[in-house]
Specification:
The protein is α/β, with parallel strands linked by helices and 331 residues long. 37% of the residues lie in helices and 15% in strands.
Length: 331
């Protein structure tokens, strides 16, 4: 298939997955096929949901999953200190290994694809991203370039030996949403990347976002073209995308930034448990909560919960978490 969408998910993010699928159905600008990459084996609810949708399938190529997990292990095996650091914290494999399964998209069923984390809502057409893939290897729409410290270890001397400052400040991207192509990373290509990492470049990787740093390194070290709508669009046409931005205006279950419709909203920094608890009826007042609930219950409005007030301590902790995320990127 030519164009399609991948989502990384399991039963833990079931409510977010349903909301995302409904938002794609309503707003993406086409009946795109969707393939869900399993974060792990907790998939009972996911499998049931797939049965209700004719355009959604589950990625079940275990050999492909194994190859990319082994690749992730080799990447982090080359890092000088991260393995011992993780072990001190009780992590004896790769931290957040399931997140690395997103890389299966590079040899999946779609010629061109858009990858989405489950904590996203699609609010505008995805066609411009697919169109741009005819000219670029990777297409993004975010402001992560303003905060490279969450992509690379900015204190590593290797960083600016490997990439220029200009590239670091213009090419890094958030791994929550990106478009790319099948087949751009052959085994020979991956072996070469592993060699450069083993030769010392692994120290520039940021271990607290292991999948995000790897996909950025893969793209940038390969000198692939990265097109960012946030940089390419005129300033009066581009929009933000993060839940940490308080200024978006809602109209008819869509969000607008200075009059421009958002392509997507990323609930970055919010734990999946918050969404589950809201869907169970707990009144947790996080930004753009009602937008999420609208899409979660788009096809079952009678099941939308009547929210009961949460404890003040829960709300206080949530606001502190959002404040810390906002100090990074909030456009």
């Amino acid at each position: 298939m030519k164009n399609g969408i991948y989502i990384l998910a399991n039963d833990v993010v079931y409510d977010q997955l349903v909301a995302l699928l409904n938002s794609i159905e309503l707003n993406a600008g086409g009946h795109f096929p969707v393939c869900i990459i399993p974060y792990d084996d907790r998939l009972d609810k996911v499998r049931q949901e797939i049965q209700t949708r004719d355009n959604v399938s589950l990625f079940e190529d275990q050999s492909c999953i194994d190859r990319w997990e082994n690749f992730a292990r080799e990447v982090w095996q080359a890092h000088p200190v991260v393995k011992s650091t993780w072990q001190k914290n009780g992590i004896f494999d790769v931290y957040r290994m399931g997140m690395h399964r997103r890389f299966c998209a590079f040899e999946g069923i779609f010629e061109n694809f858009i990858y989405l984390d489950a904590d996203i809502l699609v609010l505008g057409s995805l066609k411009p991203i697919f169109h741009q893939l005819s000219q670029s290897d990777c297409v993004v729409y975010d402001f992560q370039y303003k905060d490279p410290a969450h992509v690379y270890s900015v204190t590593s001397e290797k960083l600016l030996e490997t990439f220029t400052q200009r590239r670091v400040c213009s090419e890094v991207f958030c791994a929550g949403l990106y478009g790319s192509k099948r087949g751009i990373f052959s085994q020979e290509h991956l072996d070469q990347l592993l060699k450069t990492l083993a030769d010392g470049e692994s120290e520039l990787l940021y271990s607290n976002a292991p999948d995000q740093t790897i996909v950025n390194y893969m793209m940038m070290r390969s000198n692939y073209s990265i097109y960012n709508f946030a940089l390419e669009l005129p300033s009066d046409e581009s929009t933000g995308c993060c839940v940490t931005s308080p200024h978006f205006k809602e109209r008819e279950h869509l969000l607008y930034d200075r009059g421009n419709r958002l392509t997507y909203l990323h609930y970055i920094g919010l734990a999946s448990s918050l969404f589950s608890r809201v869907c169970e009826g707990e009144k947790i007042d996080f930004p753009y909560r009602d937008i999420f609930l609208h899409y979660r219950y788009l096809h079952e409005p009678d099941n939308r919960p009547r929210l009961q007030q949460s404890s003040p301590s829960v709300i206080s902790r949530l606001m502190q978490k959002l404040k810390s995320v906002r100090q990074g990127i909030s456009l």
